[in-house]
Hints:
The complex is a heterodimer of chains A (about 220) and B (about 230). Chain A is of the alpha/beta class. Chain A is about 45% helix and about 15% strand. Chain A has one domain (about 1-215): Rossmann fold (3-Layer(aba) Sandwich). Chain A has helices at about 15-25, 40-45, 50-55, 70-75, 80-90, 105-115, 125-140, 160-170, 180-185, 190-195, 200-215; strands at about 1-5, 30, 65, 95-100, 115-120, 145-155, 170-175. A seven-stranded parallel beta sheet of chain A has the order 3-2-4-1-5-6-7, sandwiched between helices. Chain A is globular, with a radius of gyration of 16 Å. Chain B has helices at about 100-110, 145-165, 170-180, 185-215, 220-225; strands at about 1-10, 15-25, 30-35, 45-50, 50, 60-65, 70-75, 85-95.
Amino acid sequence: MIVAVAAGKGGVGKTTVAYNLGAALDAVVVDADLPEGRGPGLHDVLAGRATATEAVRGGAVSLLPCGRSLAGARAADVRRLADALRQVKREYGDVIVDCPAGLRADVGVPVAAANACVVVVSPRRFALADAIRTRELARELDTGLVGVALNRTTDADDPPEDVFRRTLGAPVSTVPADPRVGRSVREGRPVVETAGSSIAADAFRSLAARVQSCNSR
Amino acid sequence: MDTDWSVSGLDGRDDVRLVTVELRNPDPVDRQVRVDNRLDGPVLPPRRAGVPDPGWDRDGFTGVVPAGGRLSLGYACPAAPGQPPVSVVNEGRASERPTDDTETAVRELADPRPPADAVPDAPPDGGDGGGSDTDAGGRGDSPPAPVASWLAAVERRIERGERLTDASVVTAVGGVKTIAADGQDVADLDARVATDAVALRTVAARATALVERAEAVDIPVEALRRLS
């Protein structure tokens, strides 16, 4: 299945959630902000210069990085994204797409192509408005919201899980602020491997279970 | 199904027709219709964000006229006028048609690509700079695309520099802010324009020399043909 990880707002840790959820589901993570490395990326796929499977890279989590040059972004045709995601799904199984921040077509297309959507929010009340906008977009495009990742909570926050659960109408997984989660993308080591018994790893596993239960329905 | 249509010209373009079609459904049920273009040219449908509105394809439109209601359509077609411009087929009672969510998303949400102006130094193919060293094209009296894009980028930098040269404090501050917003430092810009000046002078000298050599070329085509 294809799962879109979205957030109305940037900087809430969407990439980290996508990466660690990808590890928990053994899925390919397609991402806008991953380290690029060498070889073709998503922009090349969207510009018709490479196939989606050529651009996937192995590792602790298989990745399809986006590419970062403005010229690459300019040449990319977002309409090819849906086909690219389906191709990766055919070859590799599950796909997690880390959508960019905001509500442009580069969010709408993966959400439309996805079977399910996970929304990442920060534990602040003002984050709710962005999350609701993202949920509305998913609803318009017939993609169900399977879970909410309430990311980087601290004890001081008294995470408003109930508010988010009631307002968004989806189960909430609370991911506590944990430096191992923060480092996971940079070091290429997902937290379910490096700290399998941590609360954060539990949160990602519970989110993964929700995604899978939606898949089997 | 009652149908009205009109064909009009487009100001300043003799080769394009604008076709409007109004469909009226007197029946108490929704009706599915197919409108096919009969002019001798492709249908240029209404688009948003580059994506045709729902129901349009290369040859016409498929959609639903509501019970007792109307549906107005319009498209452009690069063709000579003809009558009637369209054929309308009533396809019976309307049924649910699947919609393409990808197209909906692109149509309804803004284009995510950075504007062309944001990539001044990009090669025009948007590639990774691994271009070939053969002739890059260029027809008639316009330079090849990579040269034109380089010159345009240089010109933009020089224009920015000119705005800051002899500027009043107010415009200079505004300019500094604009440039800072572009992620470029004023000192950078000054150095860059100076480098541009050197490069332009080198190119100018090389171009002048090549023009002289090109004009001196005079191949004795006839003589060579006789020899071969």
